[in-house]
């Protein structure tokens, strides 16, 4: 047997020399004529096309030249190579510098794409982090989660924890396309996903960490493993610890990685699971942190279900009953009861603590009601009149407010310093950031538009529009937040903080808080539009007397589901047609995992757990009189400790069973196996 072949067998465990292109080049050199002198060998080495080899292999070939010249023994050199390879691979093959020569622009491409993506969709940072987690926990970090199903292949995308839930695939495709243009066939989808997850966290204010690279892509996937390996939102603490331990991660890693729920949103499937009682073998949601000793109304649903079963056995789901009950419960809320005066035998709401000597406008509603009764007697409820008046008051307020702002701006710009284009060069994405954040805010809290409008008003009326109202009190400074008109009343500060944080990422130390507040107040219309979207498509109430005039166009726009409270039997027969149509809340409803700062990576998640406000059952299990309570308390008060532990845990998770060396492939399309 030739010496090079024998030595090659000894090195079979080394991925460095098993790569085909390296083996071919080594063999070509070693099969030179044995009479070749060291000078001739050096000449061959100099002119053979081996300049593209990685630096450590280049060094080995140089060592080969030297050893032949000194020892004259190819066999001795290959044994020496064996030693180098064993040392080089003893600590694993992943390295932060893996692509430093073959694709030096990789991290720049990922960073720029992620910066744009998170700017336009802050939630995407959380989505890519979750995508990476769901990849690594199923047979290792091998990008198997990215593979599409085909007629002959079943991937992981449609597994229970992933179907209609995972997102961010198009972002990985975008990065992969750009990388392939510059470094074709070089960078794995698995490494791109690892880098994108890291950058998404950092862009939302979280820690960064060094990502070791060199993973290769899987050619297979396992839907069954995805269904069994990923811990679910109903997991107990012991189940969570066991699931992470199976991947080589300890309880501290699990607690830190769970902090990823400080960003992103959860999909709320309306499946009536909250109605299920605990049993000896089942932990339901009734006693989860936010629910325990808090939720009520179970007996109402039970009563309705029993009656429905008598009429339509086995037909109507508990989920639909719950949705309908919630709908009618909301309808009973806006009932104009606040307009009722006290009498000798009736105590109304006008003189309740929050209302006494405070509420105004009753005479306005009385005037409108009198005029409406002339046109449509006995038709339009006080509740609907109040709703329309509030809507139109907002429209008038916005118009007046804009005029008022114009006046302020005219006075303030007498020196010519304010301009709509002030940030056109220094921060061109400013208005996009504000508008996108306000649009998201409006979907989560329609009232926030009015709150930010009021916040801007209270700022401008005190020494000008200078954001002084945003300053917190300190031991040596008394701000405006606790002044009587503001204390326990102003809100929206966290929205301004969120916008400011995102703007600072794009344009550090460029945009003032005063300008952000002004833009947010203007874009408050997005929150109004978001809240009004739910009223579209409703039919106006028509008069029930043929001789009456048709209601005016303004009255026809009334969302006529707000009616004065009255017993069910007293409702007119046609009243049921006026109620909102049955739209069962679908599985696409989203709720922020951290309602305080959903787009900022911080430690508020742990403060939520201590306050028993964990959104998911598995979240609250971390702080539920268990072994991890102390660690949760530490993270809640020490953001630095959480950030450090999270980064370290992400590195360990990224090292779960990677494919390296000759295992796996480099897919040119992350969705398919080439």
TrEMBL record:
<feature type="binding site">
    <location>
        <position position="138"/>
    </location>
    <ligand>
        <name>Ca(2+) 1</name>
    </ligand>
</feature>
<feature type="binding site">
    <location>
        <position position="156"/>
    </location>
    <ligand>
        <name>Ca(2+) 1</name>
    </ligand>
</feature>
<feature type="binding site">
    <location>
        <position position="135"/>
    </location>
    <ligand>
        <name>Ca(2+) 1</name>
    </ligand>
</feature>
<feature type="binding site">
    <location>
        <position position="231"/>
    </location>
    <ligand>
        <name>substrate</name>
    </ligand>
</feature>
<feature type="region of interest" description="Disordered">
    <location>
        <begin position="533"/>
        <end position="595"/>
    </location>
</feature>
<dbReference type="GO" id="GO:0046872">
    <property type="term" value="F:metal ion binding"/>
</dbReference>
<comment type="similarity">
    <text>Belongs to the peroxidase family. Ascorbate peroxidase subfamily.</text>
</comment>
<dbReference type="InterPro" id="IPR000823">
    <property type="entry name" value="Peroxidase_pln"/>
</dbReference>
<feature type="domain" description="Plant heme peroxidase family profile">
    <location>
        <begin position="93"/>
        <end position="674"/>
    </location>
</feature>
<feature type="site" description="Transition state stabilizer">
    <location>
        <position position="130"/>
    </location>
</feature>
<keyword id="KW-0349">Heme</keyword>
<dbReference type="GO" id="GO:0140825">
    <property type="term" value="F:lactoperoxidase activity"/>
</dbReference>
<keyword id="KW-0376">Hydrogen peroxide</keyword>
<dbReference type="InterPro" id="IPR002016">
    <property type="entry name" value="Haem_peroxidase"/>
</dbReference>
<dbReference type="GO" id="GO:0020037">
    <property type="term" value="F:heme binding"/>
</dbReference>
<feature type="binding site">
    <location>
        <position position="262"/>
    </location>
    <ligand>
        <name>Ca(2+) 2</name>
    </ligand>
</feature>
<protein>
    <recommendedName>
        <fullName>Peroxidase 1</fullName>
        <ecNumber>1.11.1.7</ecNumber>
    </recommendedName>
</protein>
<keyword id="KW-1015">Disulfide bond</keyword>
<feature type="compositionally biased region" description="Basic residues">
    <location>
        <begin position="538"/>
        <end position="548"/>
    </location>
</feature>
<feature type="active site" description="Proton acceptor">
    <location>
        <position position="134"/>
    </location>
</feature>
<keyword id="KW-0106">Calcium</keyword>
<feature type="binding site">
    <location>
        <position position="140"/>
    </location>
    <ligand>
        <name>Ca(2+) 1</name>
    </ligand>
</feature>
<dbReference type="Pfam" id="PF00141">
    <property type="entry name" value="peroxidase"/>
</dbReference>
<dbReference type="InterPro" id="IPR010255">
    <property type="entry name" value="Haem_peroxidase_sf"/>
</dbReference>
<keyword id="KW-0479">Metal-binding</keyword>
<dbReference type="InterPro" id="IPR033905">
    <property type="entry name" value="Secretory_peroxidase"/>
</dbReference>
<dbReference type="InterPro" id="IPR019794">
    <property type="entry name" value="Peroxidases_AS"/>
</dbReference>
<feature type="disulfide bond">
    <location>
        <begin position="136"/>
        <end position="141"/>
    </location>
</feature>
<feature type="binding site">
    <location>
        <position position="142"/>
    </location>
    <ligand>
        <name>Ca(2+) 1</name>
    </ligand>
</feature>
<keyword id="KW-0408">Iron</keyword>
<keyword id="KW-0560">Oxidoreductase</keyword>
<dbReference type="GO" id="GO:0006979">
    <property type="term" value="P:response to oxidative stress"/>
</dbReference>
<feature type="disulfide bond">
    <location>
        <begin position="103"/>
        <end position="183"/>
    </location>
</feature>
<dbReference type="GO" id="GO:0042744">
    <property type="term" value="P:hydrogen peroxide catabolic process"/>
</dbReference>
<feature type="binding site">
    <location>
        <position position="144"/>
    </location>
    <ligand>
        <name>Ca(2+) 1</name>
    </ligand>
</feature>
<feature type="binding site" description="axial binding residue">
    <location>
        <position position="261"/>
    </location>
    <ligand>
        <name>heme b</name>
    </ligand>
</feature>
<keyword id="KW-0575">Peroxidase</keyword>
<feature type="compositionally biased region" description="Basic and acidic residues">
    <location>
        <begin position="567"/>
        <end position="578"/>
    </location>
</feature>
<dbReference type="InterPro" id="IPR019793">
    <property type="entry name" value="Peroxidases_heam-ligand_BS"/>
</dbReference>
<feature type="signal peptide">
    <location>
        <begin position="1"/>
        <end position="15"/>
    </location>
</feature>
<keyword id="KW-0732">Signal</keyword>
